[in-house]
Amino acid sequence: MTKKVLVIGGCGFIGSHIVDALLAAGVSVRVLDRRPETFREPLPEVEYNFGDFSDPFQLLEALESVDAVMHCASTTVPSTSNVDPVADITGNLISTVRLLKLLRQMNIKKLVYLSSGGTVYGVPQHNPVTEDHPQNPISSYGIVKSAIEKYIYMEEQLGDLSAVVLRASNPYGPRQGHTGIQGIIGTYLWKLARGENLEVWGDGTVVRDFIYVRDMADICVAALHSDQSGVFNAGAGEGNSVNDIVQAVRAATGKDFQPSYRNARSYDVPRIVLDIERAKAAFGWAPRVSLQDGVSESWKWVQSQARAQG
Amino acid sequence: MTKKVLVIGGCGFIGSHIVDALLAAGVSVRVLDRRPETFREPLPEVEYNFGDFSDPFQLLEALESVDAVMHCASTTVPSTSNVDPVADITGNLISTVRLLKLLRQMNIKKLVYLSSGGTVYGVPQHNPVTEDHPQNPISSYGIVKSAIEKYIYMEEQLGDLSAVVLRASNPYGPRQGHTGIQGIIGTYLWKLARGENLEVWGDGTVVRDFIYVRDMADICVAALHSDQSGVFNAGAGEGNSVNDIVQAVRAATGKDFQPSYRNARSYDVPRIVLDIERAKAAFGWAPRVSLQDGVSESWKWVQSQARAQG
């Protein structure tokens, strides 16, 4: 049983919810991140190490006396990774390869890694996408995630590591900032709270798999406590179009806004939905929060933040 | 039609044969490599640039006024890449990503890349291995090759590049030095020429796909002149065991030696043979040299070298 976990990237949007879920499960938590959370004060139960996980010395210190590692840090996002792939490779791939070497040296045998179901497959040949779908990413972000998965697999084959790779879809929920297409729900709600106009690229038929961030945190904790290893899609398992999101946002906010429709962007995959049967069977987990409930919860949180900011 | 080609790694074992085949096809050749060929004087028809392809300035200079690039350089070999994966990523992956950026900037639209059919697939789930076989490498070498393939694919999707990726099996032939398991034929012949004993790891039933290096060079030239793009296995398409090699070497050399059998090595994949139907159909190419003929040619060359060295 895991007693103490290092969460790399634990002050980020998803990481902060993983920390909450670990604490709720009675696990001691240390966080390694570059800066404190944006929307909360530091939690008294958590041991924070502020530093860069690509710095081997800070990583070594952060790994001291932990039983397991939850790695959900990324120095890049999908939409910008192609601008500087070398920085993507250096900041994420090389840093994670160094992490794997340290885990072996320090005899830490459990790792959960947050990969990306939205980018490692590229343009889906079929939907929903299963884990054995070919990997033809069209972003450096996806290529690097795919390469990291392979180094993890190799370490499992050649060493004693037991790892779970979770290919996340698009998480949304409280503490999500303005993060472009991947975080369209957060972006829409923040814009509405500020009285700004919403934009839709294309005709709104682009479909994504949106997962409420607490469901995402739950699968991370389940993976950490499981003796299963391998690669698992982690999404809602259902697709929603941008137009569906607009409808859910209207219902949650009570605002009858009209978005502005812009030209479609050539790099948006038209439709991707993850098949999550493997994760359900392995972890006894399932997403519990509907899109409408999740958007409503997110709206409550955005309103509270908007009020606090005056 | 290609008029001038830059061969990156053109002084290596495989590269030197690609240069020969390009010259025979009437193509102008520039070579970028770190040092001259080991076994030959520089060729008067070839323009040599000596330098490191991971140096962007030397690469820029080498790319000036060429129509196409044949990239067959590697700073690592499969058996040692796991010792320092970070050096593997830096020397090969990052350098090749920089190459792709330069190709785009300099409007060079044709690339042939030598990948590795022996490592990108990992332990085969079936034989012969087709190009759509899952990729689960167990060496950094294979992971880096796989990631390079993905960056090439992405560049084709997002830019104007037309690329052929050739997943080579185990080339052998004249100018092969002592290169361990991947180069077992060269190693055996050199040892025999020096009167040394041959070693077999395990019982000699390990099977590989050995391709005569001139057949390998021919497919590279065919790929360069083709308007096809994509990923292609490049091997003999048939398997030979280490015991088969021992037999062919006995027949070629007329020496009735007995190898020493050592313990099997845990990291040797038991059997891998490439399916080469896709390359045959796309390029009108086929391997022409049988294992026995190739080993005999290689032995003649080793003998000539051994005599020259006195």
Q: How would you summarize this macromolecular structure in one to three sentences?
A:
Chain A is an alpha/beta fold. Chain A is 39% helix and 17% strand. The first copy, chain A, contains 9 helices and 13 strands.
User: Approximately what portion of the residues of chain A adopt beta-strand conformation?
Assistant: 15-25%
Integer-rounded radius of gyration of chain A: 19 Å
Low-confidence stretches of chain A: none
Mean pLDDT of chain A: 94
Main sheet specs of chain A: 7 strands, parallel
Which structural category do the helix and sheet elements of chain A fall into?
A: alpha/beta
Helix % of chain A is: 25-40%
Largest Cβ-defined interface: A-B, 28 and 28 residues
Oligomeric state of the chains in view: homodimer
Number of contiguous helices of chain A: 9
Element-level helix/strand string of chain A: EHEEHEHEHEEHEEEHEEHEHH
Overall geometry of chain A comes to globular
Number of strands of chain A: 13
Pfam families (chains A, B): Epimerase
Pathway (chains A, B): Carbohydrate metabolism; galactose metabolism
Protein name (chains A, B): UDP-glucose 4-epimerase
Family (chains A, B): Belongs to the NAD(P)-dependent epimerase/dehydratase family.
Task: Characterise this structure.
The structure is a homodimer of 310-residue chains. With 310 residues, the first copy, chain A, is an alpha/beta fold. Helix content of chain A is 39%, strand content 17%. Chain A is built from 9 helices and 13 strands. In chain A, the strands form 4 sheets. Chain A has a 7-stranded parallel β-sheet, sandwiched between helices. In chain A, β1 (4-8), α1 (13-24) and β2 (28-33) form a beta-alpha-beta unit. In chain A, α5 packs parallel to α7 (242-253) and α7 (242-253) crosses α9. The longest helix of chain A is centred in the first third of the chain and has 21 residues, at 85-105. Chain A starts with a strand and ends with a helix. The mean pLDDT of chain A is 94.
